[in-house]
Automatic annotation (TrEMBL):
It comes from Pitta sordida. It is found in: Cytoplasmic vesicle, Clathrin-coated vesicle membrane; Golgi apparatus. Residues 698-718, 749-768 have a biased composition (Low complexity). Subunit of non-clathrin- and clathrin-associated adaptor protein complex 3 (AP-3) that plays a role in protein sorting in the late-Golgi/trans-Golgi network (TGN) and/or endosomes. The AP complexes mediate both the recruitment of clathrin to membranes and the recognition of sorting signals within the cytosolic tails of transmembrane cargo molecules. AP-3 appears to be involved in the sorting of a subset of transmembrane proteins targeted to lysosomes and lysosome-related organelles. It is a peripheral membrane protein. Residues 794-930 form the AP-3 complex subunit beta C-terminal domain. This is AP3B2 protein. The keyword Zinc does not apply. Keywords: Cytoplasmic vesicle, Golgi apparatus, Membrane, Phosphoprotein, Protein transport, Transport. Belongs to the adaptor complexes large subunit family.
Amino acid sequence: MAASPAYGEEKGGSSSLGEPEYGHDPASGGIFSSDYKRHDDLKEMLDSNKDSLKLEAMKRIVAMIARGKNASDLFPAVVKNVACKNIEVKKLVYVYLVRYAEEQQDLALLSISTFQRGLKDPNQLIRASALRVLSSIRVPIIVPIMMLAIKEAASDMSPYVRKTAAHAIPKLYSLDSDQKDQLIEVIEKLLADKTTLVAGSVVMAFEEVCPERIDLIHKNYRKLCNLLIDVEEWGQVVIINMLTRYARTQFLSPNQNESLLEENAEKAFYGSEEEDAKDTKAEPASLAKRKPYVMDPDHRLLLRNTKPLLQSRNAAVVMAVAQLYFHLAPKAEVGVIAKALVRLLRSHSEVQYVVLQNVATMSIKRRGMFEPYLKSFYIRSTDPTQIKILKLEVLTNLANETNISTILREFQTYIRSMDKDFVAATIQAIGRCATNIGKVRDTCLNGLVQLLSNRDELVVAESVVVIKKLLQMQPAQHSEIIKHMAKLTDNIQVPMARASILWLIGEYCEHVPKIAPDVLRKMAKSFTNEEDIVKLQVINLAAKLYLTNSKQSKLLTQYVLNLAKYDQNYDIRDRARFIRQLIVPTEKSGALNKYAKKLFLAQKPAPVLESSFKDRDHFQLGSLSHLLNAKAVGYQELPDWPDEAPDPSVRNVEVPEWTKCTSREKRKEKVEKPFYSDSEGESGPTESADSEPESGSEESGSSSSSGSSSSGSSPHSPSEVEEEEEGGKKAKKKKAPQGRKGHIETSSEEASTTESSSSGSDSGSEAEGCPHEAMPPGLFPSCCLHEAEPLGVSPFSPPPPQPIPSSSVVSTSLVTDLEGLTLTDTSLTPTLLSPAFGAVKTYELLHRMAGEGLAIEYCFSRRPFPGDPHMVAVQIQISNNTDAEVKNLRVSEPKPLSSMRIQEFPEIECLAPGDTASVVMGIDFCDSTQAANFQLCTHTRHFYVSIQPPVGELMAPVFMSENEFKKEQGKLMGMSEITEKLTLPEKCQNDHAIVQQVTSAANVGRVPCGASNEYRFAAKTVTSGSLVLITLERREGGTAQLTINSEKMVIGTMLVKDISQALVQ
C-alpha cells in the first residue's frame, strides 16, 4: 500500500537537516537524545511554511512518544497540520492523533471535524487514513459518527477505502456491540463487492462480527471462490478458513459412500442380465442408498480454485489449503497436499514446527499420503530438538512392514546423537514401531536390550521403560530378556531403570523362579543405600515372591519389611506396614488376607503405545487449538457434515435483465447492418455503454470477464485501484463509443458469479435479424452452412475449405480503409472466418479396457457449435467393441467448474455390437485450459471422463486487413506482448510448411502481409472474444521471432509454447 512507508523512507530523516543517526547507537543519541532543548522549537517548526521542517518536527514528536515522553502539549500545533498537503506529514500527524485520542478524549473530539473533512478528500489515501484514525479513537460518544463514516466509505469508489471500511467494522463492533445489526448490513454490502482488494478484509469482518450468519455467504460463495486466486495472501487465509466451515455445513461428505461405490461397481461388472431383471423390482426402494455419490459442483469449484494456491509463497496459505483438502476433499484427492507441505519443511524452523504438527495428525489417518516423501522427514543434525521429535513422530506414523527396515536403520543412527532428549524420543519411537509391527518386535527388543549397557543414564532408563511395556505383551516368549535384565541390576545405577527391572521380575516371577529370589537377596543387602523409588519396588518384589515362593523368600521378605519399617521416608514406612498386614496372616487380619494373591498378581493390561496426535484431528488443522491440543479462546468448532444436502439453489444468482434503449436501436442497426455483421451470429450490439455505464470499474471473478469483442485493447482491469477520480472519468469516456460496435460475451450466471451483460438468446435473435444479403460471399454463419449435415458424417476429417472470393477481400480492405477515416473513436470489429484447416488431432476419452469394450475418442472439429457460439464444438466418436448392445448412452449431470457450461449430445438409444456413432457436444471452457469433467452413462455403467482443450482450440479465426492488424497490435503492447526466438528446421523453411504448422497448433486465420518474410495470423477467444494476434518473422540463418499480442496473458504464454513446439518439431 502507498501508506506503508510510515515515517521517513530516508534513514535519518530529512536530508536538508543532515543525518546524524547513521553511525550512532540509538540509545545514546540521534532522535532518542535526552537533550530536551531540542524540543523547544517544535511548535515553531510545525508553524513553518516549509514541509521539510514540519516533517522533521513530526519525526521528533513521534520519537518522543516512542520513548514514553509526554507530547500532549503539542496537540493544537499538530492538529493544524492535518490539512498539510505533504502526505508524509499527514501520516505522522495521524500517528500522533491515534496515540493521544483515548487518553485525551476532549482533545481528540476537537479533531473529529478535521477527520470528517478528510473523509471527503479527493485523494483515496487521505480518505482511508482519516477513516483509520477515526476508527482507532476509542471514544463511545462518536460511535454514530464512526458508523456514518463506515457506511459512506463502504460505498466509496476506491477499493482501498472500502477495504479500510472493512477493517474498521471489527473495531466499531468491539467498541459497541449494539451496532451489530447495522454493521451486518454494511458487511452484506461489502460481501457483494467484486474487488479482490476488499474480499479478504470483509470476510475477516464477517468472521469477527457475525460468523453465524451463513446466509450472507450463499449468494457470494461462487464469487469468493473465483476471486480467491487474486486476493492478497492473508485475505486468502481468512477466506479459505471461512469457506472450510461453510462447506462442512452445505455439502455432503465425499467419503461417506466409498464402500457403497465399490460394492455397486463390482456388482455391475460381474452381474448377469437375469440378476438385473430380478433386482429391478427392488430398485425403487433402495434407490437412495444405491445411488452413487456425485459431488456438488460448488464443492468441486472450491476444491479446484484452492488447489493452485498450494504453490503459494506464503506458508499460511499453503497450510490453509491443506487443511481445507484434509477436511473437505475425497480421500483420493487429498494426496495433492503432501508435496506442498513437504516443500514447507525447507522453510524456517517456526514454519516447520507448525507444518510438522499438522503432518503428524494427518499421517495417522492418511499414512499413504506421505509415504512417497519418507526421506523428507529424515532428521538433520542442524534441526532443533522440537523439530527432531516431530519428525520422529511422523516417521513412526509412516512405518509399515515395507519400510520398517529403512526407518529402524535411521533410528539406529539417531541413538548415537548427543541430544539426550532426542535419543529418549527415538527409543520411544522404536517401542511404538515394535508395538505396531509384530515382525520387528524381536529385533527392536534386542536392540533396546543392548542400549541397557549405555553410559548415559537417560538412555538406559528410557530403554528399560520401553522394554517393560513391550514385555507386557508377550512375557512368556521373552523370559531370556527378563533374565538378562536381572543380571544387569549390578551394573545399572539409574533409579528409574532399576525400579523398572524389579517391577518386571516381580510381575513375571513365575517365568524366572530361580533368579527372582536371588535378585531379592541382593536388593535386601543394599536396601538402605537405594533410592526411594527402588525401595518401593523392592517391597513389591518381596511381597510377590512371598505369595508365590514363600519357602525361599519368607525370611528375606521379613527382613526387607523390617528395614522398611524404620526408613526415613514415610511412604516406604506406610507401604511396609500395609503389605505386612496384607500378606502375613495374623489373628487380627481381616478378609483381605484371602485376596492378597489376586490383588498383587492380577494380570495387568499391556500399555498401549499410541501417538500423542491421535485425537487431535477433532480440532481444525492449522488452528492454534490444534497446535496446543486445547481449545483456545475464540476457536470455532468445525461443523459435522450434514446428513442431507441443503438446498444448492440458495447459491444461484439471478441474471439481471437489461432493458434495451429504444431511442438508440435504429442508430445501432444503421451502424451494424452494412458490412461488420458477425458471421457467427454473435453480432449483437453491446449495451455496456448504455445500460451499464459503470461496468468499467466492476470486478469480475473469472477468466470470462466481460469485455468488448470489437476492441483489441485490453478492458478495464477489475482489480486496479484508481489513484484519482480523473482516471475513472477517462475510462468511462473511452468505454462508451467502443460499446457501439462490440458486444459483451457472457457465461452462465447460474454456475459462476461473474457479471453478465447479455444472453445467448439476445445474440441469437439479433443474428436472425441480420439479413444474409449484407454478408459477403463465403462468410455466412457456419451454423447455417452445416445445419442440414448429419452429425455422424466424417467425424475426424477436417472441414472442407470455403474459399473466399478475391472480390470480397478487396471490398473488405476498401471498406476497412474508409472506415479508418472516420472521426469517431469507434474501433473496428474483425469478421469471423471459417475454421482453420490444420491437421485435426484425435484424443482418447475412454479406453476400451476401462470402458469394458466401449471405446470413445474425440477431436476439436473447429466448427462453430450450432446452439451457442460461445461454445467449442467437440466431435465424439463412440465405438462398441463388445458383443452386446449398449443402450441409453448419454451425458449424465455434467458437473464442470461453475464458470463452464456443457451442452450434452442427444442420447443414443442403442448402439449395436461393432457399430460406431459420432456426436457433437458443446463446451464453454471460459478461455481456460482446465478440463471439463462429466459423466458418460449407459444403461448399466457410469464412466467419469474429462476433456482438456489445447489452448489453440479455445479460439476462432478472424479476418482482418493489414491496417487493422497493425492498429490492434499497437493497442496490445507492453505486458500484452510475448516474444520468443526460435530456430526453424529445414523442413519448415517454406511458406506452406510454416502456415500449416501454425494453423495445426491453433485455430487461427491468416492475415494478408506485404513482407515476404513475415506471417501474420489473427483469432479471437471463443468465450470472451479477446483478440489474439500472432506474428512470425523469419530471419537469416533459419532463425525466427514469434510474437503474440493478447490481453489474455496466460493464453498468450501457453500459445507461444505450443506454436514454438509445432514449428521446431
